[in-house]
Fold this protein.
Amino acid sequence: MANSTNSGSTIDTGATRGSWGTRVGFILAATGSAIGLGNIWKFPYITGVYGGGAFVLVYLVCVVIVGLPLMVAELMIGRRSKKNPVGAFRALHAPNTPWQATGWLGVLSGFVILSFYSVVAGWAMAYIFKSIAGFSGTAEQIQAEYTALVAHPTASIIWHTVFMVLCIGIVIGGVRYGIERWSKILMPTLFLILVGLMGYGLLYTDGGAESLNFLFKPNFHKLSAEAALSALGHAFFTLSLGMGAMLTYGSYMRRDESITRDAIAVSALDTIIALIAGIAIYSLVFSFNMDPAAGPGLIFQTLPVLFAETGPWVSVPFFVLLTFAALTSGISLLEVVVAYFIDERRWSRTKATLILGGSIWAFGLLSAIAAITIPFRGKDQGFFDVFDFISTNYMLPVGGLLTCLFAAWVMKRADKIAEFGSKGIIFQGLIFFLRFVTPLAVLIVLLHGLELLPFMDYSK
Ligand code: PFF
């Protein structure tokens, strides 16, 4: 390639910015960001709630028409500008235009999402130790352990603290020697554990066939508009889009890599892992005739009842897997915030990581203490639910919509071609999607979040 140097960009890169050591390193880090609680906790449970196969199919379509174009757009903006989200929008357009606000929203989203994400990740860690001790008692007693953990502020705070310390420890090491190095260890381990658990589910339980049927045989009678909209919203969250995480990771990418190829690899891996997690979990659920539509408690309440039968050698790897997945996503959330302070405020990485990581930890206490509630959407709710709702339904879709419109209509064509590497038919197709299809889809998610879609009934 003609301009395949690390510093080939026309934009000032700053001398001290990090970069990925290898392509595999980048793919593992970006996949690490994408694969998280969204894949192993949320995807299986929402698939259960929305009835299986048809939902999975819609979700796959959403990944292709919304996720993939947006991921290419974020990587393009990041690598072209070689900046954090705020600096990137400024560098690729005139300074001090409203587009910068997209970057601000991204940094804020990273801050808010990590603050509650860390609390769930903390529960996953607590469950590693519960698994080692072994689950016992009646189904009700085992399920009550989860309610007790959530309600117990000290335990939640301790695990939230441990998780944040781990994130801070990794991000302080920098792009190559922190994030990349740890992704190279955690991601292959995660993959091995997951394949092992899927193998166990398919070969050693009698729920394997039913689980494959449930996930891959679409039954369109069960598909509601609500389900389709959730699939679209989830495509965002699971691919870490709409808040500048992929943009930031793209800013550390080398010029000689194909953005399209890497975006396809990351989206495909993320999707495959979600499906494997689904197979592993549903094989267990069906083999014990449990309810697939248990909701958010599927992993922390339903599975432990089954783990009491299977023993710790299934449950310990499962919660280690969940923790690793959460950790590689947590570090990407922290990196978005830290990159802003390093690039724009000229803070050292150590100072930025400690101060911002500490602030996110403190803010996360609101979510860790379930007893603190505020009135939200007509009822008293904990901060955990409020932040989860606001970020998934409003912040990420707004960020995604603006990013998509920026990439399609504002970013210079020459900049896009330089990053994309060609202006052939695939490039034209991408631009068409980014101009019309992706923003429309994202707008629909957003209007649904605001309860403004005309064909939906929001009175319930
Ligand atoms: N993609 C992560 C998951 O599926 O759990 C969550 C996430 C990470 C969202 C990073 C956004 C982000 F920037």
Q: What stands out?
A: The pocket of 4-fluoro-L-phenylalanine is lined by residues 33-34, 36-39, 113, 237-238, 240, 243, 245, 329, 332-333 (CB under 6 Å). Confidence is low (pLDDT under 50) at residues 1-15.
